[in-house]
Amino acid sequence: MKYQDYDIANFITDEFFIQWVKNPNENNNHFWEKWLAQHPEKRALVYESASLIRSVRYGYNPDFSDQMYVETFEQILKAETELNHAKPIRVATITPTPKGNFFSFFPIRNIAATLLILFCLWAQYEAFQYNPQSLEKTNIPMITRFNPAGQKSIIDLPDGTKIHLNSESVIEFPQKFSDDLRLVSLKGEAFFEVKKETRPFLVESGNAKIHVLGTSFNVKQKNNEPLYVALVTGKVRVNAGNGDQVTLDPDEMLVMEKGGEFYKRKFDPLSELGWKDNYLIFKNTIFSDVIDKLENWYGVKIVVKGHIDPKWTYSGVYKGEKLENVLRGICMTSGMNYKIDKRNITITNPK
Amino acid sequence: MNNNPKIPNIEHVPIYPPGHSESIKVYESKSDLDIWNAFNNGDENAFNYIYRMYVAILFKYGCQMYKDQNHVQDCIQNIFIDLRRKRGNLSEVQSIKSYLFKILYRELIRKTKKEIETVNHSLEKMSQSFSIEFSQETKIIDLENQEEKSYRIQTALNKLTCRQRQAILLLYEEGMSYKEIMVAMELNEVKSARKVIYRALATLKSLLIKN
Prior knowledge:
The complex is a heterodimer of chains A (about 350) and B (about 210).
Chain A lengths: L7 H4 L3 H8 L3 H13 L4 H13 E3 L7 H21 L21 H22 L2 H7 L3 E6 L5 E4 L5 E4 L3 E6 L7 E12 L7 E5 L2 E5 L3 E6 L5 E7 L2 E4 L5 E4 L3 E5 L5 E5 L2 H5 L5 E8 H12 L2 E5 L7 E7 L3 H12 L2 E5 L2 E5 L3
Parallel strand pairs in A: 6-7, 16-19
Antiparallel strand pairs in A: 2-5, 3-4, 4-6, 5-6, 6-9, 7-8, 8-11, 9-10, 10-13, 11-12, 13-14, 15-17, 18-19
Chain B lengths: L19 H8 L4 H9 L3 H22 L3 H17 L10 H24 L12 E3 L8 H16 L3 H11 L5 H7 L5 H20 L2
Pfam family, one (chain A): FecR_C
InterPro entries (chain A): FecR, FecR_C, Ferrdict_sens_TM
Protein name (chain A): FecR family protein
């Protein structure tokens, strides 16, 4: 049977299809994307099948803690040495020095001993000379990127990770990551496409820490608002400042209040992640939030004249639009007027 | 068919004992067969790699059988000690993951049987093994309907036999091929692995297709 004749039951039992859903790689991605392009009418069926496959999870999800990881490893090695004690220790074979060898003229053991003592003395000396400042000098310099209102940027990290940094956001990272950790700290909002590799990737945002291996997700924490982490692919673990931790699966969003209370919910990808692709999105947005968003997005100052109904909300999607077009769109639907004077905008409600 | 699926995402980031990060770099691109042979020949880095890659998922898998975490941890310890002891005489392994799943399953049954005999544990523990959670990615529209449907599927899944649930989890949660499921569940042929899955899904078919 060909894939185009498949029904849902065929898809969810097909190995090649399951592999693509569970372990996407270059090969199967290439095939299924091509196939979907050729059979657009099957798109819904394919997504439904993929969603079913992804929905099946273990009913019990214990965490294998760091402590268990190390403990088990040590126990395994320890069992070995205990076993080896029972066996006779293998005697090292010593190759006899050939007669007339150059080195045989020197008391080699004495030389070795002298060198060892010298080394110890030197090490002792170095230890006394230890100065914390010299350590700082060898530290890798930190790089800070800041986007003011009205500016967005894409940052490529040395490990291949890509960060979309939103406006009014700051990110700090070392010029070169250490051998065992990739650590960045964020204030504001950013979308991460983390390059998959063995060093864990850690995002610090306020008190929370987000652990990643290779995945894409959005982090938002502005002023006194909660922390939002929206996961697109892969898996991340968020550690709250108070020691609580929570794991996110794709399409889940974590909302963590300032006090550390948190909950998970689903999210709408366009409203949460659209900003990085230049989508300006309003979804039943109240007036004051519309103004904040516009000021932040375009780096302008907005003054409002007249009374605005507190029940007023606005919905609309703009992609890469100029401010004037957005203002026209908003004002047209609600009978307001606007005036642009360089970076100062005035919105008037005549009613 | 890809018989060596690398773990797609490891949500757990442990502190590595020394040498673990290096071992990953060396073995990431090698086939399971090569890694296993290196381990069999006494290569410590190969062991580090295997431990690092599989210990967390083994633990999770083991806990699906018995929720007693210490018990599962002990069994994992035992199988690795045993494997290290037998180095030099290990047989060829095509898929390390499914092989480890198999021997952990055996060890868990062996050790638990012992316990049942001595402590007089109840056997019904086993029937609750491999419980499945079914949580569909909800679409924003029609949320209520989705949730109800998910609940019905989850209930139906957990009414399947233990072996069927085990196979379904290996297929969907672990992303194993039928061949790997055959190894992990000690079935005789790939056909049998397919049969277990088909039978389980046939029971659910009406639920899955009706929207």
